[in-house]
């Protein structure tokens, strides 16, 4: 990117920083698109799997719409529209949230749990193929350290 004289206050990326940023972006796109493509083979989208797996790990297989939206980095309205589609497929159901008149609980149905249990082996294989098995233990440890440094930096 060319620098304009009026941009003197901007901390432009140097060559190494830009190369690292672009490599990070390519890595994220490659892993996410690969695992998302594989999930479609079992009839789920990446967001479907995220909702189902999160609910399966929660007490009572329940989460508020607000909590789930925050976890996914989505707006409540975006997740609400997605939840409507998942509910129509019988994967989740909604229940009123007495603490938030505008919110609701997302509840994993038995069909949703069965769907998740059937999809999980293929998803784990996909994660291995596109991510884990391509890296050494040292690589994985370094990525974990980096991820901890970057967690919570996104605006919500």
Describe the structure.
The chain is mostly helical and 156 residues long. It has a single domain (22-136), classed as Arc Repressor Mutant, subunit A, CATH 1.10.10. Helix content is 60%, strand content 8%. It is built from six helices and three strands. The protein has helices spanning 15-40, 46-57, 65-72, 76-88, 110-130, 137-150; strands at residues 62-64, 92-96, 104-108. It has a three-stranded antiparallel beta sheet. Helix 2 (46-57) crosses helix 5 (110-130). The longest helix is centred in the N-terminal third of the chain and has 26 residues, at 15-40. It is globular, with a radius of gyration of 19 Å. It starts with 14 loop residues before the first helix and ends in a 6-residue tail after the last helix.
Summarize the structure.
The chain is mainly alpha-helical. Helix content is 60%, strand content 8%. The longest helix is centred in the N-terminal third of the chain and has 26 residues, at 15-40.
